[in-house]
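Lab meeting, item 3. Inverse folding demo.
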């Protein structure tokens, strides 16, 4: 019984090939079916992700429920992912091919409905992301994009951006300088 933990049901080479094949297939499927799947999970997307993990499990493990086989599969996934990440980081063309490029969802305060349809997003999904990032209305947005990883990145119009402490310090220094100039001018005008 204890020997079953370590006795593999399939050869190591087959285990590695199965794991790499499923990794590549899942990467392609996620790339094809869009960025929304990565960050904007709704109930249906979550169900699909949970079921996919169960569906591909047998493709990875084959006729093998051993501890050794599971560890070999996990190690293979980590190695393949590590290699893929390093290759993509150093090659911009490969990164665009496998990861994709950002998609503009809002430009100059206007939704791009074609881009929303392409990415499978509703206006409400994007509006929630806008509010989280400080916009009360789409009209305040210079641009909003969905990154290849699924994050929605919002750039507010300059007039609608919050002031930073640095902005306030610069304004305070400017006001103090102007007040000094006004005080000096008033002092010159005052009768002695």
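The presenter then showed the designed sequence:
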């Amino acid at each position: 019984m204890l020997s079953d933990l370590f006795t593999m049901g399939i050869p190591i080479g087959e285990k590695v090939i199965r794991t790499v094949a499923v990794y590549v297939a899942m990467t392609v499927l996620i790339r094809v079916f869009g960025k929304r799947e990565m960050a904007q999970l709704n109930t249906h997307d979550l169900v699909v992700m949970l079921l996919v993990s169960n569906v591909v499990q047998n493709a990875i493990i084959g006729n093998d429920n051993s501890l050794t086989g599971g560890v070999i599969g996990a190690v293979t996934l980590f190695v393949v992912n590590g290699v893929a990440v390093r290759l993509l980081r150093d090659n911009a063309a490969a990164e665009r091919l496998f990861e994709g490029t950002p998609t503009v969802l809002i430009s100059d305060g206007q939704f791009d409905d074609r881009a929303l349809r392409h990415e499978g997003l509703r206006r409400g999904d994007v509006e929630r992301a806008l509010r989280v990032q400080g916009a009360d209305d789409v009209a305040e947005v210079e641009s909003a994009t969905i990154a290849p990883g699924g994050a929605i990145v919002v750039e507010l119009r300059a007039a609608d951006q919050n002031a930073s402490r640095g902005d306030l310090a610069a304004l305070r220094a400017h006001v103090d300088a102007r007040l000094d100039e006004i005080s000096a001018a008033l002092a010159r005008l005052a009768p002695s």
